[in-house]
């Protein structure tokens, strides 16, 4: 009865059915503003029934509540008038299951619409991961004045333009809007009207309307601009399309140097705009003008994008997939090469595996050559190319399959088949090719279904381990920090140092050679500060991090830095633990399930990737191919003992030596006679985090976990900020095992909170300083707990019981007579109290709301100011109150971003 998804805890205590809610299918509402949604009339009437009845009685349309109820049931004309008034300035919340991150619930101002479907603004689809192929969404009405104020100032869609996981815009135009913008900013030689000169933009517009010039013709237009108090006039070379595109764009985003008189006449956006460029434009707009103005700009770009993608008339026809002429010759050449390899094999010059590898290489090269020829021969104005190039739909690899060559495919055991698929989808596959490729296509679908469930479970564990991490104080005063540097994978950079510095505080002031402070430790670093530090050739620098935060409960503002959802310093009360869990869990579905095998030979590449690797790291598991780690500083020598290879490391100063047996087939990373430091890998492979902790210490294992998780996500093109991973790693390392209790009164060999032990030792040191010289401090060993273990090791038994092993946790708590201090979020949700985060914090409980027209008419304004100044978080209801018939992570509903319509070759 208690345990499981249908048990008492998860079914009734953590998520409840709520009144004043409804659900319906969503349709697109391109005419809506960013902060609006379309609400069907009948649904609105039912949802706002009590408000409508109150309004009817107030206006005297009916005598009493009973009459009002009858009027509403009969839907009389005055009822609709009352409804219009009631819903004005009354936001509603829209939620789409599965709610993977806090942007899965946002607030909108309702607009009454005919029909029975909800209307959704196209730009918020990305945040919800919604599309209009039959998705449903739920509506909730915030009832109290406080709830309405929170919805309006914290959850309104127009205020949530940035992703909390990486601080980048989430409301970037997609599909048709991108295509329209791309079409507008194209330029083309030899178009009608090329070289014409116009007096001003209006004249050029008249010429365009009269079809005297085209959108892409290169023309000149006279412009006048104010510069240092004088007016500068001159001709600017541009196209009609680019002038139209620049209309809604603020002209001070920094793309043009406005302090230079030669540049000042230019339009801000004078280049081809695709999805990436649009993202950067929105990002700059938010930084320069703030969210309110950006929301208007976005609405204008949306309208313009739809209009001009319609005007462009871009369509897809079979003949647009142009097959390169050289393809036939390339295939012939590859066949000849394969024949040559076979001849060499028959004569005994090659082994079977060498022949196999050589053949695969030939076909790989052939596939790449065909793809290169295809791209070289493609017309810039080819519709399919324009769609892929702009980022509106599809990708170049889709195009390669349509018009190039599908290439090598792997069989069921993951080994690549020697016979490649020579055809593309335009020519059509032969029966054998179709059969070979069917397996990859099916695997793709099966993987997706499995991935969704796994990703949901990972998010649930992450939420559980980090839910009690809340910003509770301003500065913990720690002198320790995390040393950051560029994260690399071989030659390529995974995460540059600049990205790790922005939005953080330094541990010490950054000074130049003369001791002048360049970046203060009390300043939140922005792009400029990070550039300054990196520009001075700094490779490693210490920053404040939650890993070293000494706050009693939760973490402090200084150690956390900026809130990524708005780029400002985080406020007290922000539930940063939940945000961290959602930021890591939400992109989890995009990570591949694939485990790579390279022809049966164990090598450095044969490591688990994607979701299983993230899980392995967070659970602190021993990896599959464990690398051997050196335990002492010393010199390397090789020895053969009983036909086995051993690596012996000897320290000449201490005479200490360690011998390591090297398993057969392992690759070494050290040379004979080399001097190596402790913690260095002797063989290739992944290291066991527990070994790193034991040999190199806490700092090293923190670095290792952060780097490895970043590596998995960045390889898949997913950006996550370090601080989210740091919060989870902090929770994994918060316990220590007491070796010797000294005089602290702690229990030997028990697990204790690290901060508790440090505090106990500090008290002992104070007593020693006061003359009690015989006292001893406690000694301890740091422990790395996986996220499941760490969740169950929490002090709150309510939170642990609602997570896993319900019966064991509850009996254990009863036997030990445990007390729950209700510090985290889950415990409070379970007993029905306001969560101690966001506006539920004690420090915000004295905000009063005066009704409009009351004794102090500026009441709501005051409330608005308080809320906006504090920028309170609203994500605390995210995972906890699911409010849905469906579970939070509904396995069937995990929809892929349907970008790669065609399955990848070799999948």
Overall description:
With 907 residues, the protein is an alpha+beta fold. Helices cover 39% and strands 13% of the residues. Among the domains are: 20-168, Barwin-like endoglucanases; 175-312, Enzyme I, Chain A, domain 2 (Orthogonal Bundle), CATH 1.10.274.100; 323-377 and 392-429, RNA polymerase Rpb1 funnel domain (Topoisomerase I, Chain A, domain 4); 471-574, no CATH class; 735-877, Orthogonal Bundle (DNA polymerase, domain 1), CATH 1.10.150. Strands 2-4-3-6-1-5 form a 6-stranded mixed sheet. Strands 20-19-18-21 form a 4-stranded antiparallel sheet, with no helix packed on it. α12 runs antiparallel to α13 (352-377). The two termini are 43 Å apart.
Approximate strand percentage: 5-15%
Could you name the ranges where pLDDT drops below 50 across 5 or more consecutive residues?
595-606, 854-907
Oligomer: single chain
Identify the overall geometry.
globular
Q: How would a crystallographer describe the biggest sheet?
A: 6 strands, mixed
Q: Remind me, CATH topology of the domain at 20-168?
A: Barwin-like endoglucanases
Assigned CATH architecture of the domain at 20-168: Beta Barrel
Q: What's this, in brief?
A:
With 907 residues, the protein is α+β, with helices and mostly antiparallel strands.
């Amino acid at each position: 009865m208690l345990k499981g998804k249908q048990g008492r805890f998860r079914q009734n205590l953590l998520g409840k059915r709520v009144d004043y809610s409804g659900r319906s299918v969503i349709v697109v509402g391109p005419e809506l503003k960013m902060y609006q949604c379309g609400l069907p009339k009948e649904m609105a009437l039912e949802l706002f029934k009590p408000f409508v009845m109150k309004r009817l009685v107030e206006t005297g349309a009916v005598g009493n509540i009973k009459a009002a109820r009858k009027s509403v049931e009969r839907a009389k004309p005055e009822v609709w008038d009352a409804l219009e008034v009631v819903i004005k300035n009354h936001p509603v919340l829209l939620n789409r299951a599965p709610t993977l991150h806090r942007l899965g619930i946002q607030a909108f101002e309702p607009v009454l619409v005919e029909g029975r479907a909800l209307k959704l603004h196209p730009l918020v689809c990305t945040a919800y991961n919604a599309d209009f192929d039959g998705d449903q969404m739920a509506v909730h009405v915030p009832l109290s004045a406080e709830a309405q104020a929170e919805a309006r100032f914290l959850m309104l869609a127009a205020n949530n333009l940035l992703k909390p996981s990486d601080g980048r815009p989430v409301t970037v135009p997609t599909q048709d809007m991108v295509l329209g913008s791309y079409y507008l900013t194209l330029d083309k030689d030899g178009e009608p009207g090329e070289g014409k000169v116009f007096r001003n933009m209006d004249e050029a517009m008249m010429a365009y309307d009269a079809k005297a010039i085209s959108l892409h013709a290169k023309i000149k237009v006279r412009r006048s601009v104010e510069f240092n108090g004088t007016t500068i006039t001159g001709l600017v070379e541009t196209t009609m399309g680019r002038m139209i595109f620049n209309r809604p764009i603020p002209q001070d985003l920094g793309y043009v140097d406005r302090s230079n008189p030669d540049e000042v006449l230019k339009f801000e956006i004078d280049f081809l705009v695709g999805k990436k460029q649009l993202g950067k434009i929105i990002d700059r707009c938010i930084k320069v003008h703030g969210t309110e103005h950006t929301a208007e700009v976005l609405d204008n770009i949306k309208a313009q994008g739809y209009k001009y993608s319609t005007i462009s008339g871009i369509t897809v026809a079979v003949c647009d997939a142009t097959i390169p002429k050289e393809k036939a010759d390339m295939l012939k050449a590859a066949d000849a090469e394969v024949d040559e390899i076979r001849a060499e094999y028959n004569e005994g010059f090659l082994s079977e595996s060498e022949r196999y590898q050589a053949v695969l290489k030939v076909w790989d090269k052939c596939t790449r050559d065909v793809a290169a020829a295809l791209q070289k021969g493609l017309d810039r104005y080819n519709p399919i190319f324009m769609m892929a190039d702009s980022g509106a739909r599809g990708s170049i690899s889709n195009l390669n399959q349509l018009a190039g060559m599908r290439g090598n495919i792997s069989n069921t055991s993951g080994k690549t088949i020697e016979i490649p698929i020579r055809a593309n989808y335009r020519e059509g596959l032969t029966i054998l090719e179709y059969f070979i490729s069917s397996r990859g296509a099916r695997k793709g679908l099966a993987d997706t279904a499995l991935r969704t469930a796994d990703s949901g479970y990972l998010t649930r564990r992450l939420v559980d381990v980090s839910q009690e991490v809340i910003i509770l104080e301003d500065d913990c005063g720690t002198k320790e920090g995390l040393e950051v540097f560029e994260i690399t994978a071989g030659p390529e950079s995974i995460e540059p140092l600049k990205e790790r510095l922005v939005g953080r505080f330094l541990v010490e002031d950054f000074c130049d050679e003369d001791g002048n402070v360049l970046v203060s430790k009390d300043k939140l670093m922005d792009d400029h500060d990070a550039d300054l530090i990196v520009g001075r050739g700094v490779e490693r620098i210490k920053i404040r991090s939650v890993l070293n935060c000494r706050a009693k409960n939760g973490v402090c503002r200084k150690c956390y830095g900026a809130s990524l959802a708005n780029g400002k310093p985080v406020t007290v009360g922000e539930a940063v633990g939940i945000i961290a869990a959602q930021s890591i869990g939400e992109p989890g579905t995009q990570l591949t399930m694939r485990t790579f095998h390279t022809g049966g030979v164990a090598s450095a590449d044969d490591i688990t990737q994607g979701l299983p690797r993230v899980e392995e790291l967070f659970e602190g598991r021993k990896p599959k191919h464990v690398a051997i780690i050196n335990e002492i500083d010393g010199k390397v020598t090789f020895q053969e003992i009983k036909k086995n290879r051993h690596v012996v490391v000897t320290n000449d100063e201490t005479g200490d030596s360690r011998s390591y047996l090297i398993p057969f087939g392992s690759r070494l990373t050290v040379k004979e006679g080399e001097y190596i430091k402790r913690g260095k890998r002797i063989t290739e492979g992944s290291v066991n985090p527990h070994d790193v902790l034991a040999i190199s210490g806490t700092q090293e294992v923190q670095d290792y976990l952060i780097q490895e998780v970043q590596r998995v996500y960045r390889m898949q093109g997913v950006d996550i900020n370090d601080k989210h991973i740091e919060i989870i790693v902090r929770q994994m390392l918060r316990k220590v095992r007491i070796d010797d209790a000294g005089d602290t009164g702690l229990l030997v060999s028990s697990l204790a909170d690290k901060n508790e032990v440090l505090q106990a030792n500090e008290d002992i040191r104070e007593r020693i300083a006061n003359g009690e010289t015989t006292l001893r401090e406690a000694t301890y060993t740091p422990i790395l707990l996986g996220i499941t273990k760490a969740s169950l090791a929490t002090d709150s038994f309510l939170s642990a019981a609602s997570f896993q092993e319900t019966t064991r946790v509850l009996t254990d708590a009863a036997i030990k007579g445990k007390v729950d201090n209700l510090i985290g979020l889950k415990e409070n949700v379970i007993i029905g109290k306001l969560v101690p985060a966001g506006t539920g914090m004690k420090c915000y409980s004295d905000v009063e709301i005066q009704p409009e027209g009351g004794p102090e008419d500026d009441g709501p304004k005051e409330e608005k100011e308080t809320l906006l100044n504090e920028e309170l978080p609203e994500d605390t209801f995210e995972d906890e109150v699911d409010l849905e018939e469906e579970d939070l992570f509904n396995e069937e509903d995990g929809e892929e971003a349907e970008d790669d319509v065609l399955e990848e070759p070799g999948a």
